[in-house]
Amino acid sequence: MKQLxxxxxxxxxxxFNQVNFLYSQVTISDYNRADSTAKFDDLVYHGYIxxxxxxxxxxxxxxxxxxxxxxxxxxxxxxxKKKAAFDQEKLCARINSKTGKxxxxxxxxxMNISFSENLKELEFELDxxxxxxxxxxxxxxxLDKVKPEKRKYWAESRDELSNPPVVSPxxxxxxxxxxxxVYVKDIKTNKEHQLxxxxxxxxxxxxxxxxxxxxxxxxxxxxxxxxxxYIYFVESSPENQLQPVLHKREYxxxxxxxxxxxxxxxxxxxxxxxxxxxxDFENQYYISNTKWWKDSRGFTFEFNQRGHQVYQVVEVNGSxxxxxxxxxxxxxxxxxxxxKRYRHDVNDGKEIIWASERDGWNHLYLIDGETGIAKNxxxxxxxxxxxxxxxxxxxxxxxxxxxGQNKGEDPYFIHYYKIxxxxxxxxxxxxxxxxxxxxxxxxxxxxxxxxxxxxLPHVTLLRDASDGKILMQIEQADIRxxxxxxxxxxxxxxxxGRDGHTEIWGNIYRPTNFDSTKSYPVLEHIYAGPHSSFVxxxxxxxxxxxxxxxxxxxxxxxxxxxxSNRSKAFHDxxxxxLKDAGFPDRKLWIKAAAEKYPYMDTSRIGIFxxxxxxxxxxxxxxxxxxxYKAAVSSCGCHDNRMDKIWWNEQWMGYPVGPHYSExxxxxxxxxxTGHLMLIVGEIDDNVDPxxxxxxxxxxxxxxxxxxxVVLPGKNxxxxxxxxxxxxxxxxxxxxxxVDPPDWNLSETNNNKNNNLNLKP
Length: 760
Description:
alpha+beta; 43 strands; eight-stranded mixed β-sheet; single chain; Rossmann fold; five-stranded antiparallel β-sheet; 13 helices; globular
């Protein structure tokens, strides 16, 4: 009897599982539906626009998608008048006549459009040529062929000896580098004078020379060069030849030697070098932003100490060479020079507007240019300045971006403000509870305000920049077709972080066929780079990570501690600890969401990301295996000693210590317990592809099971179309528990087998 009962229970379980399996089968039709969501943006009309102000006028033009297609409009801001920017029917007819093509008036692929200031001429690029159109008679003239921009590799250092001779402001002298030393030549007499004598091949003067405005002095850096570091990779399948190609890129990594720049000063009338004591500034990450005061009394440079805990504005006296620190910014963790640095010299340096997190929030300060002491804090409070738009020295007012000031609102929403230098009279120019993107006229009298949120379609307004008054509505998004397709509005969700009181913000994305009676695995799309925050705050229905939800997942996106744009304490969590990636906050957030929505199955949580997100995706499995069960990691910087110097030393610090290996996915690879797919482009020159292969090597040595997808000829990527399909298949298999379609069958066979019972 007991045996019969056991057999009956087994049969019931098998029967239930079979029913559940058939119910949750993923077919090619599901994949096609997922692909179709990538076109949701095409179902929004009169949405986000990019206004282009015309020279110094108060007119601007813009392109917008309408039900006709792409339409171009012109706005006269003072008159608040809107009209067609040009006759698209006439222009199209002229283009087709000239080119012999059959463009349609509302889908001409015009690029780099510009209007003359008097609005009588239009220039644009089409079919690799520049064109000019006379808007009086629509006469069309073909101009020069467009020269393709040569791609400059981002990490390539400047050749400090490559600059041509530099002419003085009064056109009396030229200055150049010969035999690694500084020379000047009198243009009238052609007589040359050597100003320095200690330059050599290993320690030379830079040819990027700066003259004082009065032409009496010049400055340049004496450079002790460093040993270059290169990465190498093989392009296995080049398009233009059979044999592979070896690539080489200059690429400094944490701990590498850096060039040392010593600011140097020369007096032209006396033909001599004036000594400058640079001893205190030689432990440098870099010296930058060298510039003379307008009255030639001296020049300043900015010193970023290696390790990014000291950042200074330094003045060198033009007569004596004496050195004085004007702004001395220090922090026990890091100074976010790459994301929050701002300096504006007022009245030729008599005052300096300076951004700092010294009170725990990113704010603006008015610094006395003589003493370096803060005269007053311009902005203050538990919110942050996100950027400065304009400083008006005459009115002593600043237009800036900020977020977090409005209590009860998403603290990441950007608003635009105007404030006086003394901190008084702050006005919110964009008071609507939304995320704002503003574009100002060149005289800052007017601005175009695009505002939206994930659940609020774009509204575009023309506003008065003095007080934010709405002058006219330009566009309002039409999403009727989008809603008809079943698009689900993302949900903004908030939960408490690891400290029990800090709010963690994120979004929940559901499939169009969402059914609250079903159970859904959860997929987190992660990017936890400390350089910014990353959760969607604006209206866009087709985010690149949302199509995968269509296959039967709930997708979430979260900004945990360690990311930017909140308090300094919130940000500091990342310091020397990039493996943290906000995971304690992310897990609490997902648990809180699942408590509210039981259809979110926390026993089936996956995670995926690219670059820094790729590092975090794998870290989720290594350091939080009780929570995350499957991960797809694309082009990850898996060991911060293997990645680019600026990004990693900014957050992980210098020197390179044991904390680097503690955060390494390579070192910790043996901890893997979940399902893992690694994706990497073989010619990735952003993150060294060897980083991913070193993880693979460590996993093999640890006898771990994983999948590796190497993409021939691909750079820094999430994988493109093929990588996206592999990612979907991986999560379908490991979190939904069913096999994806057999992609090696022909398309005809696949279509026939849409409803076949594919074995799990």
